[in-house]
Amino acid sequence: MDARGALGRYGEELAARRLARAGMTVVARNWRHGRSGELDIVARDGDALVVCEVKTRRAGPFEHPAAAVGPAKVERLRRLAECWLAGHGGMPPGGVRIDLVAVVLPRRGAPVVEHLRGVA
């Protein structure tokens, strides 16, 4: 695994821990649907299904990780969520929500993990 892949995996681990601490249940990580793409984390929040995109960045002159989730990415996440639902029992009673976990790794100190609910 290259450095970028390791950074992403670390961010996903921090995100999964944050979601669990918030009372959510992680049901899948890195779920792939052929070449269509990947859902970083699929979780349950009560009776809702949560598709969670994780963006990890090192601190520096780069934009906030949330800025990397534009309209095309949101549309891809929606399509992938539909594929997940088709193969896992359909729409849950609480519906589907798309969340983002932004992870920023400073040069020193603890990572900053921000959970943004319902970004799309």
UniProtKB/TrEMBL annotation:
Stated name of the protein: UPF0102 protein GPJ59_08865
Pfam hit, one: UPF0102
Family designation: Belongs to the UPF0102 family.
Database matches in InterPro entries: Restrct_endonuc-II-like (IPR011335), tRNA_endonuc-like_dom_sf (IPR011856), UPF0102_YraN-like (IPR003509)
